[in-house]
Amino acid sequence: xxxxxxxxxxxxxxxxxxxxxxxxxxxxxxxxxxxxxxxxxxxxxxxxxxxxxxxxxxxxxxxxxxxxxxxxxxxxxxxxxxxxxxxxxxxxxxxxxxxxxxxxxxxxxxxxxxxxxxxxxxxxxxxxxxxxxxxxxxxxxxxxxxxxxxxxxxxxxxxxxxxxxxxxxxxxxxxxxxxxxxxxxxxxxxxxxxxxxxxxxxxxxxxxxxxxxxxxxxxxxxxxxxxxxxxxxxxxxxxxxxxxxxxxxxxxxxxxxxxxxxxxxxxxxxxxxxxxxxxxxxxxxxxxxxxxxxxxxxxxxxxxxxxxxxxxxxxxxxxxxxxxxxxxxxxxxxxxxxxxxxxxxxxxxxxxxxxxxxxxxxxxxxxxxxxxxxxxxxxxxxxxxxxxxxxxxxxxxxxxxxxxxxxxxxxxxxxxxxxxxxxxxxxxxxxxxxxxxxxxxxxxxxxxxxxxxxxxxxxxxxxxxxxxxxxxxxxxxxxxxxxxxxxxxxxxxxxxxxxxxxxxxxxxxxxxxxxxxxxxxxxxxxxxxxxxxxxxxxxxxxxxxxxxxxxxxxxxxxxxxxxxxxxxxxxxxxxxxxxxxxxxxxxxxxxxxxxxxxxxxxxxxxxxxxxxxxxxxxxxxxxxxxxxxxxxxxxxxxxxxxxxxxxxxxxxxxxxxxxxxxxxxxxxxxxxxxxxxxxxxxxxxxxxxxxxxxxxxxxxxxxxxxxxxxxxxxxxxxxxxxxxxxxxxxxxxxxxxxxxxxxxxxxxxxxxxxxxxxxxxxxxxxxxxxxxxxxxxxxxxxxxxxxxxxxxxxxxxxxxxxxxxxxxxxxxxxxxxxxxxxxxxxxxxxxxxxxxxxxxxxxxxxxxxxxxxxxxxxxxxxxx
Length: 864
Description:
Elements: H1 3-16, E1 20-22, H2 47-50, E2 60-68, E3 85-94, H3 99-113, E4 121-126, H4 138-146, E5 154-157, H5 159-162, E6 163-165, E7 170-181, E8 200-213, E9 219-232, H6 233-240, H7 253-262, H8 270-288, H9 297-315, H10 323-334, H11 340-343, H12 345-375, H13 381-391, H14 395-404, H15 411-425, H16 436-446, E10 452-453, E11 460-471, E12 474-479, E13 481-482, E14 496-500, E15 506-515, E16 518-527, E17 535-540, H17 542-566, E18 572-577, E19 582-587, H18 594-609, E20 614-620, H19 621-626, E21 640-646, E22 652-655, E23 670-679, E24 682-689, H20 690-711, H21 718-735, H22 741-748, E25 752-754, E26 757-763, H23 769-783, E27 787-795, E28 798-805, H24 807-811, H25 816-826, E29 830-833, E30 837-842, H26 848-863
Parallel strand pairs: 1-2, 4-5, 10-13, 26-27
Antiparallel strand pairs: 2-3, 3-9, 4-7, 6-7, 7-8, 8-9, 11-12, 11-17, 12-16, 14-15, 14-17, 15-16, 18-19, 19-24, 20-21, 21-22, 23-24, 25-26, 27-28, 28-30, 29-30
Helix pairs in contact: 3-4, 7-8, 8-9, 8-10, 8-12, 9-12, 10-12, 12-13, 12-26, 13-15, 17-18, 22-23, 25-26
């Protein structure tokens, strides 16, 4: 069977047995699930169903889920079966059949669908664990016996082999695995499934999900007994295609063949060929699901994957840009099963090319430095940190190369240096958030009947208090019907009041807690008390809700305008929608030019003035996708979704659960406040709308009028008046020996855009010491907060170097002291300084141009 046939055989079998086929979820887990960085199993997109947070579309489900496991990155190419990206086939029961049904389905498909011989199949079951308070899984043993598996082919295994957790917290339970006995020729007569041998190959894991594990590792029964099975498609392909390794199966052969075609070394190393094949699949699927290269979390995993692939491509002697060739092959082999790959092809190629170009420029220099250190037989923490900080080498890659040379890296020392850098820059992100179970338990604990949200239709609702509780000094209330929106999708919660119909109590709504489709309110009592069964009137703060709705609709218009102006690669990477402002993070490599920023703002306001209707509608996920609706990467959507479209939907159509204005004219006005870098390859725009925007314009107008009065001119003449004053000041400074204004302007005009940062790296004649530092500072000032200036000069047979970095560049990781050290090494000198300004000297003026190139590379690496 081909891989496509294996996938379809599995899914069609379970569809025939009343399982609803589910589309694969994203590799980015849903926002409510903080337990994993990337989707590692087929059940992750279904976690809310297993935890009772949401109702499943059917009690029986089946899917082929995209998965990614970061711990296996280092094992790829070393073993015959480890992959980073892989496909997991699964069948799921939410409170329907349990162990007996799962075993019967598995045995039927194994024998009659995939053609295994019954005498070649063994089963393992959980042997129990006294520390966990669980005994042997006798129910599973009886189920296997009932379908004809002899007792001697049912093997008991410990929790390490036969108990499954979805993460540190969440659903878990004992499992039973199916193994294929490949014969004594693959091992020894006394080998058993679950042991370290090649004779028995595990191909299916049946998880009997019975428990929910909390942070203290305590197990409590789930509301329903559930089934979650996983069959690795790629491993099954090894068996059914009768090959020795995963890399000999049909999905990998074209990628291995491409590597051999591109390689120029005499004997291409299998390990490098396999790493390129695996990593190119992983990077393609990660980017298609909205991940972009960065130095944090998922972005770091992607960056590490891509840079490792680039390094192994160079080891094979591949020159020039080659990753796009791999992307094309991945699309050819897997695009039919995953159409999002073709839809996101432009995005994939954009990020692949950007990373290959950026890292390619520093790889040669970094590898030369690494090789030099390894030749001395040591690699201390400082060297590993320099490779990471200056040349963008993931420390895992440095460790891997060092291990091949038999050299140990001081990992503990490297971690200390990294921690010190994070403290200095305060640029790290926080944890992944708390466990959703706490909020869910609180909401469900108030009342099992879910609150009906009516806030789309009404801002005032006569309703009943379903439950009240006190916890940690706070009061929580659940209403039968609620008009209050619970924070989600970047939009903040509504504020408002709850008043008893009898007039004897009133409470202010401080927060709205979300648990799936359910909610509860945190309230602060103003007068009286709220009691269960009380009739109340719940009222949303209308002014705040309208401001939020205006900002949310404006966010959709901003997204559409950015895609029109910059390209379809732009996608949302985070947002904040409140009554005060909107903030929108999006994937893009460069800062917006003044012209682009103006074009985006003008387009938004043109749509606002067009008074386009804003409509929401419920439709199927497939229909919404067919209509081109934008979806937030990593967000979980059910079969029925809420779609918001503006006008005829031709320029804005998004899946969204937030609140919106009825027409764009209600927004009034949109004014962009700022545009800057939020993280590597992520830009951030902040904007205001309506009365807040009008107030700001009035303030600016008053400031301009004040400046005109002070300059004794009209508002239209302020710029000319200031220019004249600046010219006089520069002339005076020049007369007094200061920096030449023409030189500053000329140097600033040579700035190039490097990953959203304006960089000047140039030489000047005969300027040294204090004057060179002053000149560099002035040039940096011309570039703005996101600018970096590197100037070098040869004076009296020596080299002077100065680096100045703006606060925006420093926040992105560019440190003047680190950059000047790299440049100084090239000219045979040294130096240092602060993050904002640093100086160095050298002895070799003939290498000044090379030093400036090294500085550019160091800046690029720091930004990467």
